[in-house]
Amino acid sequence: MWWIALSLLVLIVVIRIWYRLQSGHCTSQKTLDGKTVIITGASAGIGKSTAFDMARRKARVILACRNLEKAQKVADEIIRDTGNNSVIVRKLDTSDLSSVRSFASEIIKTEDSLHILINNAGMAGHHKRESTTDGLELTMATNHYGHFLLTNLLLNLLKKSAPSRVINVSSKMHEYCRKLDPEDLNFEKSSYSIFESYNRSKLCNILFTLELAERLHGTGVTTNSLHPGAVDTEIAYKMGGFAGYAQAFLFKLMAKDCELGAQTTIHLAVSDSVEGISGKYFVDCKETESSKLAQHRGIAKKLWLASELDVKLENEEVK
Ligand SMILES: NC(=O)c1ccc[n+]([C@@H]2O[C@H](COP(=O)([O-])OP(=O)(O)OC[C@H]3O[C@@H](n4cnc5c(N)ncnc54)[C@H](OP(=O)(O)O)[C@@H]3O)[C@@H](O)[C@H]2O)c1
Predict the structure, then answer these.
(1) How many A from CA of 199 to the centre of ligand 1?
(2) Of the candidates 168, 149, 185, 178, which has an alpha carbon nearest to the alpha carbon of residue 302?
(3) What CA–CA distance (Å, rounded) separates 87 from 212?
(4) Which of 49, 185, 207, 284 could be joined to 300 by an S-S link, Cβ 3.0–4.6 Å?
């Protein structure tokens, strides 16, 4: 029996080393003096590591988070470790459209510029379908609709601050979403599952990026999406259940740590090598093919129109 345990241990160690060695690294030394960065979901995981990096590069960093107490502790830690005092916390719950609207209007009122918007906040879903107060499915609201609305509300500020960048944290799991009905984004007609809702929301992140890039052509604002890799964060624990804990355990053994998991986000936020590149999907700091469905321009347009209706985006809000 001991040799089975030993072989398993060796296998885990080999996978862990291999996975980390082939991970992409952002090699840019760029500093961000005078630049403002917003990171959604910066109170934990990949978002927290991204915030640390942006602060080290001397940016003004806004942590857009739902749990103010938790986020303030992260902000204090970043300030202490980096010596950058321009790290602030603002309340944002991406699953709640009124919270997104309040956050955006506060930013527009208080900030002169916005150079990098990182749409990172996310959840892996709940085992039962849940509706938000806006009538949207919770995972779709958190991962897609909130960021769709937020980006639209901040577009004028981003354009005014150009060159500027919007980065959407998606996932390789989008590949498992085989079809998308823009008239049934919230599982009202089709049956719900925790995996389907997460995969769908992550497909929407890429399709949103595709259409946004087209609409932003010539404005100096670029947008790209990414898969961070398998990263040991809180996301699987929060999912709960056997699947959540099993995934969390495996990720603890074999996945990237948060610093490695943030590298592609950071690369897209700062590297000169991606200047002018827009509408693309990246893995390990390299441009990569997303699924065929994620490259479908017709579906991307339909998703945009359906999302505008679902978040009740008014013309006056984006003028
Ligand atoms: N970890 C992976 O292996 C992996 C793989 C592919 C893609 N991703 C993507 O990476 C992104 C970051 O996830 P992570 O792995 O770093 O997970 P995490 O450790 O759970 O961090 C997620 C962050 O999003 C925040 N958040 C969740 N729901 C929110 C809401 N309604 N409003 C505002 N903030 C909210 C969380 O806030 P609280 O601290 O308050 O919970 C936390 O700050 C997600 O978009 C995820 O889909 C992760």
Answers:
(1) 14
(2) 185
(3) 28
(4) 207
Nearest CA to ligand 1 atom 42: 41
Measured from the Cα of 95, ligand 1's closest atom is 31
Which of 265, 199, 288 lies closest to 41 in space, CA to CA?
A: 265
The rounded Å distance from CA 41 to ligand 1 centre is 6
Could you read off the pLDDT of 190-212 as tens digits, one per residue? 999 999 999 999 999 999 999 99
Ligand 1 in reach of 142 Cβ (< 6 A): yes
DSSP H stretches of helix in the chain = 2-21, 45-56, 68-82, 97-110, 138-140, 146-160, 194-215, 235-239, 241-254, 258-261, 263-270, 297-310, 315-318
Query: What is the rounded distance in angstroms from the CA atom of residue 233 to the CA atom of residue 50?
Result: 13
Active site residues per annotation: 198
Q: Work out which ligand 1 atom sits closest to the CA atom of 231.
A: 3
Residue ranges covered by each domain of the chain: 29-313
Rounded to an integer, the average pLDDT of 95-101 is 98
Residue 102 — very low, low, confident or very high, per pLDDT cuts 50/70/90?
very high
**Which of 91, 123, 257, 258 for mutating ligand 1's site (highest number of atoms within 8 Å of CB)?**
123
At residue 217, φ and ψ (nearest 5 deg) are -55, 130
Banded pLDDT at 71 (limits 50, 70, 90): very high
